[in-house]
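Posting for a labmate who doesn't have an account.
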Amino acid sequence: MELRDYVAVLRKYWVSIVCVTLLGIASAAIITLVTPPTYTARTAVFISVRGGDTAGELLQGATYATNQVRSYAQVTTTPTVLQPVIDKLGLQTTPALLAQAVTASIPTNTAIVEISVVDRDPELSAQIAQATSEQLVATVDQLSPSDATGKRAVAATIVTPATVPLEKTTPRTALNLAVGLLAGVLLGFGQAVLRNTLDRSIRTEDDVARATDHSVIAKIPFDADAAEHPLVMFTDPHSLRAEAYRKLRTNLRFLDVAKGTDRNSFVVTSSVAGEGKSTTSINLASTLAEGGEKVLLIDADLRRSMVAKYLNIEGSVGLTTVLIGRAALEDVVQPIGSGSFHVVAAGETPPNPAELLASDAMKRLLDAAAQGYDTVVLDAAPLLPVTDAAILSTMTGGALIVAARGAVTVPELEDSVATLDQVGGATLGIVLNKAKVGSSDGYYYHYKHEAEAKGTSRRDRLHRAWRAAKASAGPDA
């Protein structure tokens, strides 16, 4: 991964990273609060050699003391020293357990034994440290060899008496919180990188590029109101999403969809259900009609048709009615809005959708529609569950694949494009739906604010648009 990839991960998962970091700090704080405080008392014992008149003898004595001090440091935590301490202070413990609280260390190039005692009671820690140092002095006197006159060769002296510690040794609040913060940041970023590696869902144009060489010809931004008002070209024509559909219309004109032939028709589909292909079909068709074209939208999703429901038009007669020979195309066409936008509903759900869509009747219908309209848009079923959209792509100029952010994965989009390639259908491009909009799209807001500054509220525009649409659809709508 490059630096920009890590930055992208940080921007994508910053919420979870912050949460994990806060969890790390909170864990450190809880551990700090529940950890009983401990105190450390310290004392020091100096080991020296008695006697010696010459400089050489004194030097030998110092060297001997330095060598012996290691042994006496180890003696400090043995029962020889600790048992008398337990008896003196009346402690309810054993030498082995007490040894875990006592530490004897030797500063570099010294003959000093530093004794540290850790305990929850600061006064008791000082008492144990002092008693241990006193007992070490006595033990050194017992273990040290003596000369002919009975003098001990080695002597031990307490140079630093133990005092009651005023500050607790543990827990160290600042250090614990710092460690919790660092651990939280590392774990948070680590889980983000892992999730990003395992997450194969389509979210950005880069994700689409990993799945296919076909470009994203439009990004339809996410809108929280989209579920309530999916037909944005009717309800809010100056919104961010409406401008995105106009951009899709502009980009579509540069694709290989030749006017006046069977190539002026195309399919709008998706990889799986729930990606917004039907709303994309309707809004795109409406945008094309807004641009002055005569547009026919055909609901070719014979398994889960949604066009009639969204447009509030008659849906019991439509495409299937024509394909089984019970009506002509012009009999089932329903006008929407100003009259340049026409719709053919799906009709009754047939038992054999794929066979109907692959029939000669469907080819004849598309030929007739291509001659009578500037553009024919077909809303087809998703590519992966069924073959309907793939079949229709071979009869038209190709297919637009709607990929909703977070709803489809890279392998699924790969399979969708491969499905079209296998049957000889053309992939016209990818429409990234529910996309996040960056600051580069800010001009949309400027456009929207200018329109709203003229005194037209969204509620007024919505009501007028729906009244106009229902009036144009006729009394049965």
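Reply:
Got it, the structure tokens are right above this. The radius of gyration is 42 Å.
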